[in-house]
């Protein structure tokens, strides 16, 4: 029966974007109802939306919008995709009296979900005429993001990195960097987060000019 349904849709999407799916009956049969479901990797099933001649459109998932709804063709959009939307999307036509026919399209979600920068320490030594700054940049994404610093004004930094795999399939990478030879002048550095194939996300950390009368 599956050959009677034609399905197409996005196989991958970036966090925060929309994903679209559509399906249609390949012959002139007309269904009594169309059902959209989401099937996750653990085989849990969630009803997303239905359309029938008697009841019209019924959407159970707030992020789902019907773009087309008829008895032999249907398309939906999933808004603002997140990790929870990574699943297979199943379109089922309930055809009387022959039964149900279905097709699925599976979606992978990737990209960067969060970038956080912190200035953990900013100490000026009047005796040494030297500034000691501890910076942290943390990024979460799928696959694991790569973090680098851009605009560090002088050499002498030390770096500590750690990586944690989260239960939702994303990875959080944290980079702690100590800058040991900064002067009293103000400035900034950029945390550059790279996700393979998606380009960069940049978050800036600013330094104020040091009050030479104290720290």
From TrEMBL:
Does this UniProt record's set of keywords contain Signal?
yes
Q: Which GO terms describe its biological process?
A: heterotypic cell-cell adhesion; negative regulation of neuroinflammatory response
Matches recorded under SMART domains? IG
Q: Name one GO cellular component term.
A: membrane
Domain Ig-like, which positions?
16-108
What SUPFAM superfamilies does this protein's entry cite?
Immunoglobulin
Q: Which domain of life is it from?
A: Eukaryota
Gene Ontology MF terms: cell-cell adhesion mediator activity
Topology in the lipid bilayer: Single-pass membrane protein
Q: Which PROSITE patterns match?
A: IG_LIKE (PS50835)
Query: Where is the protein situated, by its record's location annotation?
Result: Membrane
Q: Which UniProt keywords apply?
A: Disulfide bond, Glycoprotein, Immunoglobulin domain, Membrane, Signal, Transmembrane, Transmembrane helix
Q: Which PANTHER family match?
A: IG-LIKE DOMAIN-CONTAINING PROTEIN (PTHR46841:SF7), OX-2 MEMBRANE GLYCOPROTEIN (PTHR46841)
State the protein's name: Ig-like domain-containing protein
| Native source organism of the sequence | Scleropages formosus
From the broadest rank down, the organism's phylogenetic lineage runs: Eukaryota, Metazoa, Chordata, Craniata, Vertebrata
